[in-house]
Every structure is written in C-alpha cells, then in structure tokens.
Design goal:
This is F-box domain-containing protein. By secondary structure, the protein is an alpha/beta fold. It is built from 20 helices and 18 strands. Strands 1-2-3-4-5-6-7-8-9-10-12-11-14 form a 13-stranded mixed β-sheet. Strands 13-15-16-17-18 form a five-stranded parallel β-sheet, with no helix packed on it. β7, α11 and β8 form a beta-alpha-beta unit. α4 packs parallel to α6. The relative contact order is 0.04.
C-alpha cells in the first residue's frame, strides 16, 4: 500500500518554499492558528505585498489582524499600493501601518497618489533608509515633494515621471543602476544625468523630446560617458538621427537597444544605422525598432529604402529580421517580433514582406489589439496568439452590416487565439447585438471577465 505523506510531515524548508507560492491572504487564512509550528513558519515567509486588486475592506482586515504583529512586518520586502478607482488604498494602509516600521522594505511602488497622502508619505519616506527600489506613477500630484525626501543616495532602482525632479534634488553621484522615466530631453540626459549615475546599467524612457535648448557646448557633450549602460529603451525619440548619434557616442558599451520613431525620415536610412553600429556600438547584439512614416505620392522610394534592412549586415551578421506593413496613411518597418504590446489592425493593413519567420512568430508580444470588423475575412495575413484585450470597431457607418455576411467567428479565430481573452470592448462596434456576434464570441472565450459596451447595445441585450 502506498504511503501518503502529510503536509505537516514535510521539513520546515519545504513548507516555507510551498507557502511562498501561495497568495498571502490565502496563506494566513488557511494556516494561521492551526498549530504553533505553522504559526511560526508563516511568520518567516518573505512577503511581497501587491494590493492592487484588493478591496478596501479586505485590506483593512489584513492590516488590523495580520500586520499587527511586528515579526510579520519584518518579513515585508516589497509593497505595492494604488488609489486607482478611488479605493483610498494608500490612505487606508498608512492609517494602520507606518512605512517606518517596515525595517526590511526594499521595494515600494505607489500609483495614483492623492494630495491627501503627501504629508504622511513625506515624513515616512525620509526615514525609509533601506529602500533600494522606488516607483512612482501619479500625475495627480507634483512628484517633486516626494523626490525631495527620498534617500536618493541609497536607491539602486528608480521609476518616476520626469527627469527634472530627479536633477532638481540630486547633489552627488548615486548608486542607481536601473532608471525608468516618462519624459526628458536629450540635453538633460547627456549634460546632466550621466554625471550623476556612473553605475547606470538600464535606462528606459517613454519620450525623449525637444523641450529644452539644443546642445552647443562640445566639451560638455564629451565630458560624461555612461560606460556601464548596457540596455537602452526609448518609447518615442523626437529628434533627428544626428542627435541620436551624439547620444550613442556617450554609451560605448551598449548591448541592447529598443527604440520607436514616428514620422522622421532621417531615422530610416539603413546604411546610416549600419555605419553607426559598426563605428560606435561594437557590443550591440539586441536591436529592436519600429520606424513609421507618412505615405507620400512617391512611396516606391521608401519601399526601396526599406529593402536595405534586408542586407547581409542585418540578416546574416546580426540576425535582426524585419517586417514591413502599411495602410492608407502610413508605412511601418519593425523588427520581428513586433516590439509593442498594442496593435491596430485595419481593413487596409497589408504585410509587404517578411523574412524567415512564420506568421505565428510576428505578433507574439501583442496583448492588446484593436480590430476593425472589416478586416475579418478569409484573406488574413495576421495571427495574434496572446491577446488578452480586444477592441472591436467599425471603420465606417456604411459597412455596419458587413459582419452579417461572413462567418464572423470562424474568421475571427483565424486571426486571434480567443482562449486567452480577458477583456472585450465593443462600445464602438454598432449593431453587434443584432448580428449575434457577441454571443458567438462569448462562447469561445472561457477567460473573459470584463465587457465594455455602449448604452444602446446594452438595452438591446436586455430586450433580446
């Protein structure tokens, strides 16, 4: 007869390892109070608390009953709080637990902070000397007030909206290795930032744009190099190619570059990129890009230029493969797989060529798709295997009944793997209720948990 091991017969090390995989609320709800041994063990599990999806009532109960014990607070290593959807989560937590009592707190992520939270946070953050990662996502407040009290000299990871706030309060070089920003200028990066982050390894900026003066002092440009920077991600670079060259010359050891550029013809010359990489980026082995530009009368010239990204330098030497797509208004070339997680597929979107990769490889990283119903047909060129959020729209009012004349759900399944879909937005898809397509979609989406719909269609849904 086979022996059946009991959970309690496992050694302490294995029990703790098992508990680390459980949701923290379930751990204390299930094991707290069962016996002395388990009580002690659950109080030694490292806690990485993420309250983003926790309602106010449950958070209050957890703070009042579980975090009441100092030995449990000692196990909190990371904390994520958000006031999104007006749940007052940050205020609720701080009313019960002071950040100063979390002696081992290393990571703090705060989103949607309100002005009412500032006084408490400022007094607590100034004493949070063990923080090495701080992330702030909040446009509702002036982040300067929090940046001013942060122990910047201790931080190794920082994520904030504006570089200006950081530069305003930094007094000496820092230990920061990972920095994420929403916006800054090229001048701020080269002339100021690099002088304060000598150990920087990772830099992620959503927008690098021209809102400051241009660089004129060559001595300043050459003074600061960021020799430890290995990964650079730029969501939108609003400068010309020659400006990017200036930046690259300050980061000679870069290994990974991701960049997106819209409507700038100076950035799409493959030969210029080849020369820059060979002369200034000898260690670059990962290059992901998306370059888009508006269509003009002589589009053949652009298509010819794009073919230079198919040369041996790109395909054979570096294995950087590209794809070209276009619609009525624009042309886009990007490395495979598509580097963004959002995509809009319109009825006139066309793939012009791809290299080596099969269709299933192209859009693996896309999770949020906007799809015009007119693009759902038997002549599909696209397949999206990992969509979790889908928005369906009509491209014009004339074709409102288009989907009634096709096998809608079968063609949709040829474009999208519906098994992972969690969010569906049909607020701009007129007559979906009358067409019966909503019911067809819901039958194929076992993971669907949210639906956005306009009021007229909602009334039709109830009437039917």
């Amino acid at each position: 007869m086979m022996n059946i091991s009991k959970f309690e017969n496992l050694p302490n090390e294995l029990i703790i390892e098992c508990l680390e995989y459980l949701y923290i609320f379930d751990t204390f709800h299930s094991f707290n109070g069962l016996n002395d041994r388990l009580d002690k063990l659950i109080r030694t599990v490292p806690l990485h608390l993420n309250f983003i999806l926790v309602n106010k009532k449950r958070l209050e109960h957890f703070c009042q009953h579980t975090l009441l014990y100092p030995e449990i607070r000692e196990q909190i290593y990371s904390l994520r709080l958000s006031n999104e959807n007006r749940c007052d989560q940050i205020e609720t937590f701080l009313a019960h637990i002071s950040l100063n009592t979390l002696n081992n707190l290393h990571t703090l992520i705060l989103t949607h902070i309100e002005k009412e939270n500032l006084i408490q946070l400022k007094s607590m953050l100034s004493l949070s000397i063990n923080l090495f990662y701080f992330k702030l996502i909040s446009s509702q407040i002036d982040e300067d007030e929090l940046i001013a009290v942060l122990p910047l000299s201790k931080l190794e990871k920082l994520s904030i909206l504006s570089l200006r706030s950081f530069l305003l309060y930094i007094q000496q070089p820092t230990k920061i290795k990972y920095l994420t920003l929403f916006n800054c200028s090229l001048e701020q990066i080269i002339c100021k930032l690099f002088s304060y982050v000598p150990f920087l390894k990772y830099l992620n900026i959503s927008y690098v744009s021209k809102y400051n003066r241009s660089i004129k002092d060559i001595d300043i440009i050459n003074k600061y190099k960021c020799i430890n920077l290995q990964t650079l991600i730029i969501g939108e670079f609003i400068y010309n190619f020659e400006d990017f060259v200036i930046l690259v010359k300050q980061i000679p050891n870069l290994k990974s570059l991701t960049i997106s550029i819209n409507y700038n013809k100076t950035m799409i010359n493959a030969l210029n990129w080849e020369h820059l990489i060979e002369s200034s980026l000898p260690y670059l082995n990962i290059f992901k890009f998306k370059f888009s530009f508006k269509k003009i009368y002589n589009n053949e010239t652009y298509f010819e230029q794009m073919m230079f990204f198919q040369r041996k330098f790109w395909i054979e030497q570096h294995h950087w493969y590209t794809q070209l797509i276009s619609n009525q208004y624009s042309i886009c070339i990007y490395t495979i797989p598509y580097l963004l997680n959002t995509f809009k597929l319109e009825s006139d979107t066309v793939i012009h060529y791809n290299t080596i990769f099969t269709m299933s490889n192209l859009f693996d990283d896309i999770t949020h798709l906007t799809l015009t119903v007119q693009s759902i047909n038997e002549k599909y060129q696209f397949y999206f295997p990992n969509i979790i959020s889908l928005t369906l729209i009509n491209s014009n009012d004339v074709l409102n009944n288009f989907s009634e004349h096709i096998d809608f759900i079968q063609y949709l399944k040829m474009i999208i793997n519906l098994s992972n879909l969690k969010h569906l937005d049909i607020s701009k898809y007129k007559k979906i209720i009358l067409s019966g397509n909503l019911l067809a979609i819901m039958k194929e989406t076992p993971m669907l948990n949210s639906l956005k719909i306009n009021s007229i269609d909602l009334m039709l849904l109830y009437n039917n």
